[in-house]
Write a structure and sequence with these properties.
The chain is of the alpha+beta class and about 500 residues long. The chain contains 10 helices and 28 strands. Helix 3 packs across helix 5 and helix 6 packs across helix 8.
């Protein structure tokens, strides 16, 4: 009942009382009574003499609810309201009749907490969960965090006891949920979903509304990596779903059941890390030709050494996955690279007709060195990330053709941004995406190591990087993507 209506009703009652008093009729009507008008969702249910009797009756009769949730008290429905009146009306009903009317119209409630998880992204709907005890939600939140961060690292962060970095390592500078979380004490309908178990709530916050988990029985020869790949998971997602395993090298027991469900987190955990790591680059290889050696001759004439660079970075990790949000603070050369040189003969025997053909040597790395791999060729959230993401060389740094070939596509895509596709021998294609600019045209012939564009962050990208893909056949036109590392290893 609206406040305005209550005021009007009270004034009318007072006016009637004054009129009766002035006319002398009040004595004939007897003594006024204090009664309680019961409303449910604005509708009158009747008047009772004692409101406490009705409250006690609700609490006594709803024993099943008290047993189900292990609570001491059950309350009226959410739309329930009692208003006190002074009246001469004798139509006062028994509390049992009012109770019967209420129980057939709406659900009774218990005291608890409503948690609202809201995102700044307007396309995402708010997530609402009910708990009886705030500790249940608090513990479930910790379970979500420790699904992505080791409990040891989490406790060190909370207790401000992380070790200082010596040479290499990482520390968590900030950790927070991207969403806004509000917890309000309220009355909750007993027929709504109310979480009383932190494990069940953790399951919901990580996997969403999916009630059943997909299980896999470990067989001989299985590894965490092979099970993950065969079920469209990356190893990090597998470890989140199976927190008892520490890393992808953990041992599996034959016959053991593991969870292969794809996570669908209701919360977004952000970690901002300070990372110092040594990155070993792909060995630089070069082929030289000797006119004095027969064409069948091939030998390594200079053994190569991979370069190692120490990167100091600010890294943003989202739900356990490092994205392209990497800021390189500094670089330090730990070991200088040495190019591996293979010498091949070029001399054609006199009895052989034809000319020598230069095959262009090995595959060149598509960016400057040193660089960082921010994302591998792997499944992410149920779909394959069909390439490797290379960062650390800076916005506008050159992107090189991995091998000689013909440029077949120079275009822009809403997701890939500005990208270039090159066709090589043996039906191999390479793709270079998220460029800031393209330096070649369709139909142009390019040589190994030729600049074809500049590194950028165009399209669907969260930071400066190159998305580099390798494909047998034309990409997105029947071609089959494969791991680009196969070109170099």
């Amino acid at each position: 009942m609206k406040t305005k209506d209550k005021i009007i009703t009270a004034i009318m009652c007072l006016l009637i009382f004054i009129i009766l008093l002035v006319s002398g009729n009040v004595k004939k009507m007897g003594t006024p009574n204090s009664v309680y008008q019961v409303y449910l969702n604005g509708q009158k249910m009747g008047m009772i003499a004692d409101k406490d009797e009705l409250y006690d009756l609700i609490n006594e009769e709803q024993k099943d609810i008290k047993d189900k949730y292990d609570v001491d008290k059950v309350y009226p429905p959410l739309g329930f309201e009692i208003v006190k009146y002074i009246t001469y009306d004798d139509e006062i009903e028994d509390a049992n009749k009012i109770y019967d009317k209420i129980k057939n119209k709406d659900d009774f409630t218990i005291e608890g907490y409503q948690v609202t998880i809201s995102s700044e992204d307007e396309e995402k709907e708010d997530v609402v969960v009910n708990v009886l005890d705030k500790e249940v939600f608090k513990n479930a939140l910790k379970n979500v965090v420790t699904a992505f961060v080791s409990e040891d690292d989490f406790n060190k962060y909370i207790n401000n006891s992380q070790s200082e970095i010596v040479d290499t390592g990482q520390i968590i500078e900030h950790m927070y949920f991207e969403e806004k979380i509000n917890i309000n004490k309220t009355y909750i309908s007993a027929k709504d979903k109310i979480y009383t178990d932190e494990s069940e709530l953790s399951q919901y916050l990580l996997f969403g509304d999916k009630l059943e988990q997909n299980e896999y029985v470990v067989k001989e020869g299985d590894t965490i990596t092979s099970i993950s790949e065969n079920n469209k998971l990356n190893t990090q997602e597998f470890l989140v779903a199976n927190p008892k395993f520490r890393d992808e090298n953990s041992m599996l027991a034959i016959g053991e059941k593991v969870n292969i469900s794809l996570i669908n987190p209701k919360l977004t955990l952000i970690e901002e890390l300070h990372v110092v790591q040594d990155v070993e680059a792909v060995m630089v290889k070069e082929t030289k030709y000797d006119d004095t050696k027969p064409s069948s001759y091939s030998a390594v004439t200079q053994h190569g050494v991979t370069g190692i660079t120490r990167f100091t970075q600010k890294v943003r990790v989202v739900n356990g996955e490092q994205n392209q949000g990497v800021e390189v603070v500094s670089k330090e050369t730990i070991r200088e690279p040495v190019t591996e040189i293979t010498t091949k003969g070029k001399k054609i025997p006199s009895y052989v007709t034809g000319t020598f053909v230069d095959t262009g040597g090995d595959w060149a790395w598509p960016t400057n060195s040193p660089y960082i791999i921010t994302s591998e060729y792997a499944f992410r959230w149920g779909s394959m990330h069909q390439g490797i993401d290379i960062s650390g060389t800076g916005y506008g740094s050159p992107i090189y053709a991995a091998k000689a070939g013909t440029v077949v596509k120079v275009t822009t895509h809403y997701s890939l941004g500005k990208y270039v596709v090159i066709q090589h021998d043996n039906n191999i294609y390479t793709m270079y995406a998220h460029l800031s600019s393209q330096k070649v045209s369709p139909g142009q012939t390019v040589s190994r190591g030729q600049v074809i564009g500049l590194m950028g962050s165009s399209g669907f990208s969260t930071g400066t990087h190159l998305h580099f893909s390798a494909i047998v056949g034309m990409p997105y036109e029947g071609g089959q993507f494969f791991n680009p590392w196969k070109l170099y290893r």
